[in-house]
Amino acid sequence: MGGDDLDDFVLDGYVSASGDEIEDDVDGSQVDDAVSGPSTQSTTEDQRTEEKKRKRKAKLKERKAKRRKLIESTESENTKSITESSPHELGDYLASLQAKTFKELSPLELEDMRIPETSIADTTAWTHPRTLDNLTEFIIKVVPNLHTRLSQKSKKAGSPTLLFVTGAALRVADVTRILKDKKLRGDKGGEVAKLFAKHFKLSEHVSYLKRTKVGAAVGTPGRIGKLLCETDALTISALSHIILDTTYRDAKQRNLLDIPETRDEVFKSVLGAPGVLQAIKAGKIQVVLY
User: Where is this region: Disordered (predicted)?
Assistant: First the structure.
């Protein structure tokens, strides 16, 4: 149940990008076989190859960062997001998605799982774009209670006050950096856990959470769900808010809840994790759509 605990996850392995081929200038000059000999030539070629790989990765990283920024700005400027709706409308929206996830349930059973509008944050007063650059101010002005809790000292390991659920590992890294802002955490706030499967085994996250006091946990629904449902490392004893990152869209213009796999993980293993839905219904956990 949401309660009163809260300290930043710095499993700081960065996320490698993969994908497009990028041209690189070949630097350095040819080494004469007759002078350098085959061994020296082989070493030089290896060095050139490593340098080319390093440049390629750097360019890929830069390109992907620019692409993410463009997608985000396009979404916020050109599309009226569902997140701007009233709690009542958001309740209907989430209920329609639950019906897609739980196709086998009857209307009565689905109604029993419905997230009450009283447990959905009213963010209609926020009129600025819902971008990463504005996330800090959004929390301070629209969800002041969350801001207060993020600045408080955590009392128990693995018990954040905030779960920020997003659909991609790179996005997790970006959001984590924002939530580390001193304007949110002050001098006493807990650590920010970075939770995604790419590069990190489940056991590594379990070990980290059991020894670390976190104030917020940012992650993909798959990894957060596993930690909530299959381990005791991530608890909801201090949980007061769950932010669903529904404004951000991937390269195919899909948000967290548009993609069937991530939508199902959100409703089955995050919002549907033991005790979470009950705490939401009891008003102990508030759902925020950003």
Answer: 1-87
d(CA 53, CA 106): 54
Given a contact cutoff of 8 angstroms between Cβ atoms, the answer to whether 164 and 196 are in contact is: no
Distance CA 270, CA 219 (A): 11
- Nearest Cα to 179, choosing from 218, 125, 211, 230? 218
User: How far is residue 216's CA from residue 6's CA, in Å, rounded to a whole number?
Assistant: 8
CA distances from 205 to 8, 201, 227, 241, 245 (A): 12, 7, 8, 21, 21
Phi, psi dihedrals of residue 129, rounded to the nearest 5°: -60, 145
The residues with which 163 forms a beta bridge, in sequence order, are 217, 242
Q: Is the pLDDT of residue 124 over 50?
A: yes
Strand blocks (E) in the chain: 162-165, 191-195, 214-219, 241-244, 286-289
Which pLDDT tens digit goes with each residue over 200-247? 999 999 999 999 999 999 999 999 999 999 999 999 999 999 999 998
